[in-house]
From TrEMBL:
Residues 52-283 form the Proline dehydrogenase domain. Keywords: Oxidoreductase. Pfam families: Pro_dh. The keyword Isomerase does not apply. The lineage of its organism: Bacteria, Bacillati, Actinomycetota, Actinomycetes, Propionibacteriales. This is Proline dehydrogenase. InterPro entries: FAD-linked_oxidoreductase-like, Proline_DH_dom. It comes from Kribbella albertanoniae. The keyword Oxidoreductase applies.
Length: 286
């Protein structure tokens, strides 16, 4: 139910809840045991081991250092340094949320930081920019297009949420700029400008998939909805499929055996708790 989903997502962003759970006897250890299904590790070395294991299985990876809602440009610079090291240590793709780069308080600086990371990636690799709530959608789009306009579009990816009514226009803009597009249903509970969760969002997803195919865009399916995924694959051919770490690895193996390109989102870092609660919210709200 939508109410259940809204409540769960509210809890997933509640810092006090995290402090309470971690403060209970054995609370952090128990939470980590549950979260570790979805999280590659609390350190970069742990994440790289998980990424290497996925690569050995024949899947691509997109590695993400947890972090969001930063308002400190100095902290954002430290994040850039971490990503520059990641770019040297793995052949995989990278992923991040722009609020981790202080886009809310320094949009121009965030674009410069993205450009520095993207500039460190070799041919065929991408920095995928994550989706956030609609309050940031314009800033995210502007940042991605700004960096793409510097001749870096072929090393950028943007996440488009099917539940947002604006997404057809965003797809056109990203495709025109040569940015890879990761199509998701949309995890945030939005106050306005969004299709209801369920059939309306599913229909929007299908329409956007066909729009992407018609444009000849570089794009991927990022959904764990098997019926929706197969409907797109049957209609449009072997579109690459992306999934979150820890969710239905059997599906990834089956897709790989069908010679469909696969990619696994590999997140890590000390800020794992709220990401885990979001995964719980999605599974309970579906």
């Amino acid at each position: 139910m939508r109410w259940d989903r809204a409540v769960l997502f509210k809890l997933a962003t509640n810092e006090t809840l995290e402090q309470v759970v971690k403060g209970l006897p054995g609370g952090e250890d128990n939470a980590w045991r549950a979260a570790s299904r979805y999280v590659a590790g609390r350190t970069r070395d742990e994440a790289l081991q998980v990424a290497d294991a996925q690569l050995a299985l024949g899947h691509g990876v997109s590695i993400d250092l947890f972090g969001e809602l930063s308002t400190d440009p100095a902290d954002a610079e430290r994040v850039v340094d971490e990503y520059l090291e990641l770019a040297e240590l793995t052949t995989g793709w990278l992923s991040l949320d722009l609020s981790h780069l202080a886009v809310d308080v320094d949009p121009a600086g965030a674009a410069d930081r993205v450009a520095r990371i993207v500039g460190a990636l070799g041919s065929g690799r991408r920095l995928q920019i994550g989706a956030e709530d609609t309050a940031r959608t314009n800033r995210i789009r502007d940042c991605v297009l700004t960096v793409a306009g510097r001749g870096l579009g072929d090393r950028l990816g943007a996440t488009v949420q099917a539940n947002l009514e604006r997404s057809p226009e965003d797809i056109d803009a990203f495709a025109e700029a040569g940015v890879q597009i990761r199509l998701v249903k949309g995890a945030y509970v939005e106050p306005a400008g969004a299709h209801p969760y369920g059939e309306p969002t599913d229909v929007a997803y299908l329409r956007l998939a066909h729009q992407l195919a018609d444009r000849g865009a570089d794009w991927s399916l990022a959904t764990h909805d098997g019926r929706l995924r197969e409907a797109v694959l049957l209609a449009l051919g072997k579109v690459p499929v992306e999934q979150l770490l820890g969710i239905r690895p059997d599906v990834l193996a089956e897709l790989r055996d069908r010679e469909i390109a696969t990619r696994v989102y590999v997140p890590y870092g000390p800020s794992w708790f709220r990401y885990w609660l979001r995964r719980v919210a999605e599974s309970r709200g579906a």
